[in-house]
Amino acid sequence: MSRFLALLLLLTSNTLHAELRLTLFECGHLSFDDISAFGLSNEESSVRELFVPCYLIQHNEHLMVWDAGLPLTDVGRTDGNTRYEESFLDQLASMDISPADIDFVAFSHMHYDHVGAANAFSQATLLIQEAEAVAAFEHAEDNPVFRPELYVGLIDAKRRTLNGDHDVFGDGSVKIISAPGHTPGHQVLYLELSNFGPLILSGDLYHFEASRELRRTPVFNTDAEETLRSMDKVEALIESTGATFWIEHSQELAESLNLAPAFYD
Asked: What angle do CA 228, 229, 231 make, to 5 degrees?
């Protein structure tokens, strides 16, 4: 056997046998009396509570965080529209994982309920769309849902700037899919899990099941038409791959899933 063929077989074997695990964490809840800001009338959905998740992806020896929950200063709050019981960092620590162990960090977008623990991961490589980086780091004042103090620690972090879809580990198992519109550089995450099968994490492409059914966009999206195009792109990906689709903020979905330390593989 030639050295080239042997190397090709080795690389193929490593790709096929890459260990991929996804762990889901509860990183807060938000409740609303009025959901009209999400592009829905109060009669079109009875849902008033949004689940706020964090995710940990293990790919062989690498660890990646996707979305980082509500601000850590909200931990312990049960007042107003916010509830956050145990911080993401404490939940990771209970699994003997520290922020320094994280190799990559990526956020569906930089709204405050997705980057709450972002500063803790300043040693990781940030995977971010160029348009989102410009909006968050240079023009945050133009979007009131951005809170720069939550991610200021990432300004000088190692960064991989993206302009479109990105294969994180080069083997097709973890792909960032560009889906702008909610924010300038919004993205969703595609995972190719061996046992569970293909899975897409929605980010804020949709907040409610009704948002998806009725193709509604929040009034605070940066570009409604671009959001609709991203919806079409992601729905086509779901169709072509047969992927399961998780609306990240769905409380009903969250109640049916296994939380940390359980995992999906």
From this structure: 65
Binned at pLDDT 50, 70 and 90, residue 168 comes out as very high
pTM: 0.92
State the DSSP code for 124: S
What residue ranges define each of the domains in the chain, with the CATH number in brackets? 18-256 (3.60.15.10)
Q: Which whole-number Å values give the CA distances from 100 to 57, 70, 199, 243, in the listed order?
A: 15, 20, 27, 32
Residue pLDDT, tens place only, 88-122: 999 999 999 999 999 999 999 999 999 999 999 99
Contact criterion met (CB below 8 Å) for 212 and 202? no
**Neighbour order of strands in the sheet with 174-178:** 166-167, 174-178, 187-193, 197-201, 244-246
CA distance 25 to 119: 18
CA distances in angstroms from 165 to 13, 174, 175, 190, listed in the order given: 25, 11, 7, 10
Distance separating alpha carbons of residues 231 and 236, to the nearest angstrom: 8
